[in-house]
Write a structure and sequence with these properties.
With 305 residues, this protein is an alpha+beta fold. The chain is built from eight helices and eleven strands.
């Protein structure tokens, strides 16, 4: 009897544990059904919708051709900077947020490499670059200064700007830049906006992998197809010819001089110069001959007297 009693106790415990397990599973199923039927306020639907790519691209393209208003932002030292101060030269504009740990640093470094690849095509004094922090108030001048230093960007023609929080929405809309908050940060358009010397948006260059060619070709177009200055100087002509004599080298990711094209241009100039000299000499000789012929009768008449 004792032995049977000792065996019956663990059997009851096992039965009780099995019942608790079944009850727990049933409760979990009931909770799952309740969350699924909770509607739009449920946890499963709490994630905000992702940025619509087509709408973002349409917004960017719609901004092309419009003039950017004269907003005032702060540079890395907290000093006010008006966007109109960049007029007179092409301007590359990128939007970033300093709390990004992957995409913004990667795209900024790619833009940095692209700008370095323009050294043969353009001098730093021929264009400007600005990066604007749109996550305010967190993208402060101090945060933008730290971001630039962290990625080793130290160009005299590249500034990092912080807009007032009140104008971020209209500023980004005027540039055609779209973004949306997510639990991990922001979804936003990757690319740069190219603004011409008059402050109008010339084109949008999309993509996270920028290179010198993608931004160099529209810059070349702006600088070579634009109107010539009212007081044209020889240096302006030489600079345009120099820009035209550069080509992009995909192996190095930089622009280089196309010496074959340079020789063709020099050869063509020498040919036209030699032709001009030839016709100039011919014109001078014929003029002297006409003058000599016109003076001969007069001298003969004077001798007959």
């Amino acid at each position: 009897m004792r032995r049977c009693a000792e065996r019956s106790i663990p059997r009851r415990l096992r039965a009780t544990g099995f019942g608790l397990l079944l009850a727990g599973l049933l409760l979990a199923v009931m909770l799952g059904s309740a969350l699924a039927d909770a509607g739009p306020n449920s946890v499963s639907n709490a994630k905000p919708p992702a940025l619509d790519e087509r709408s973002a691209l349409r917004a960017g393209d719609a901004a092309v051709g419009t003039r950017v208003p004269d907003y005032t932002l702060l540079d890395r030292q907290g000093r006010p900077v008006r966007l109109s101060s960049y007029r007179g030269k092409p301007l590359l504009v990128s939007f970033i947020y300093t709390g990004c740990f992957q995409v913004c640093p990667m795209s900024t470094r790619a833009l940095h490499e692209a700008v370095k690849g323009l050294d043969k095509l353009l001098a730093p004094n021929q264009f400007n670059v600005i990066s604007i922090g749109f996550n305010q108030p967190f993208d402060s001048p101090a945060a933008m200064r730290a971001f630039a230093a962290q990625h080793g960007i130290d160009y005299a023609n590249w500034e990092f700007l912080s807009p007032p929080q009140a104008i971020v929405e209209t500023l980004t809309r005027d540039f055609g830049f779209s973004y949306g908050a997510t639990p991990a940060g922001f979804d936003h358009v990757l690319g740069i906006t190219l603004v011409d010397a008059q402050g109008r948006i010339h084109t949008q260059v999309y993509g996270e992998r920028m290179n010198a060619q993608r931004i160099g070709e529209p810059l070349r177009q702006l600088l070579t197809e634009g109107a010539l200055p009212p007081r044209l100087q020889l240096s302006d002509v030489i600079e345009r010819v120099r820009i035209l004599c550069t080509v992009y080298d995909p192996e190095t990711g930089e622009y280089r001089y196309d010496y074959a094209l340079i020789f063709e241009i020099v050869g063509g100039l020498l040919f036209f110069l030699s032709v001009a000299v030839y016709f100039g000499v011919e014109w001078r000789n014929r003029r002297r001959a006409r003058q000599a012929h016109a003076g001969t009768p007069r001298i003969a008449g004077e001798l007959s007297r």
